[in-house]
Amino acid sequence: MACKRGALIVLEGVDRAGKTTQCNKLFEALQQSGRPAEMMRFPDRTTTIGKLISAYLENKSDLEDHTVHLLFSANRWEMVPLMKKKLEQGTTLVVDRYAFSGVAFTGAKPGFCLDWCKSPDVGLPKPDLVMFLQLSPSEAALRGQFGEERYEKSDFQRAVQNKFQQLMKDRSVNWQVIDASQSVEDVHKDIMNHSLKAMTCAQNQALAELWK
Ligand code: DGP
After folding, report:
1. SS3 of residue 60 by DSSP
2. Which UniProt keywords apply (predicted)?
3. Is the shortest distance between the CB of 75 and ligand 1 below 6 Å?
């Protein structure tokens, strides 16, 4: 009998919501409980495309806005063969940001509509679960200053948050909003509960395509 597939689990949220901490904790908890899991993050700055993106984010290069949008999408597509292989082998993937960040961050720039922003990512493996770590701008401010990277400015982050709210109206995606103002452990418990449910459902469902 073919092995049951792993689940594609994505964490999204504005900067400083705690995504990376929670991805690590989820990954470790799954591994410790004997469930095969791996972590991925987007942008993946290690590839040739990822290096172009990284230089852009660090303000070491300037790229036209449509161009950088397509590069972020290409950076996801280049990982698709590996993602599918892992999922088919029964490994659950815990992913730090995905196409939703792509749409929210470019969509927050003037002159971009959501449909255009979504189009290059149509057909990516569809996540079984997308958890949005919700944190108000005032709570985010309490977590300290933003760093030096390109998008780390309060006004822009507010615009990004609005775009995420628009994306979350799409019920064809399994969105779960997580209150990221709770303690790290309580956030982790919520995330773990949702993830275990999604992993059970994924075992009996074929991997679908995003926004199709
Ligand atoms: P991180 O490595 O998670 O801190 O992400 C780097 C920055 O890039 C962060 O400000 C969010 C932004 N970002 C992530 N994915 C995308 C994307 O697909 N498109 C755009 N325009 N920005 C993105």
Report:
1. coil
2. Kinase, Transferase
3. no
What tens digit of pLDDT does each residue of 23-46 get?
Answer: 999 999 999 999 999 999 999 999
Supply 194's token pair. Answer: 């949702």
Q: Which two tokens stand for residue 206?
A: 């074929």
| Nearest-angstrom CA–CA distance, 155 and 115 | 23
SS3 145: coil
Quick one: tokens of 24?
């690590």
Ligand 1 centre to CA of 1 (Å) is: 40
101-131 pLDDT, tens digit per residue, is: 999 999 999 999 999 999 999 999 999 999 9
Start-to-end C-alpha separation, the chain:
29
Specify the ligand 1 atom closest to the Cα of 96: 3
Among the listed residues 15, 209, 40, the one whose alpha carbon sits nearest the alpha carbon of residue 108: 15
Q: Contact, 49 vs 75, CB < 8 A?
A: yes
Closest residue by CA, ligand 1 atom 5: 43
Order across the sheet with 175-179: list the strands.
Answer: 37-41, 92-96, 8-13, 129-134, 175-179
Q: Ligand 1 in contact with 151 (CB < 6 A)?
A: yes
* For the CA of 72, the nearest atom of ligand 1: 18
Q: What is the pTM of this model?
A: 0.97
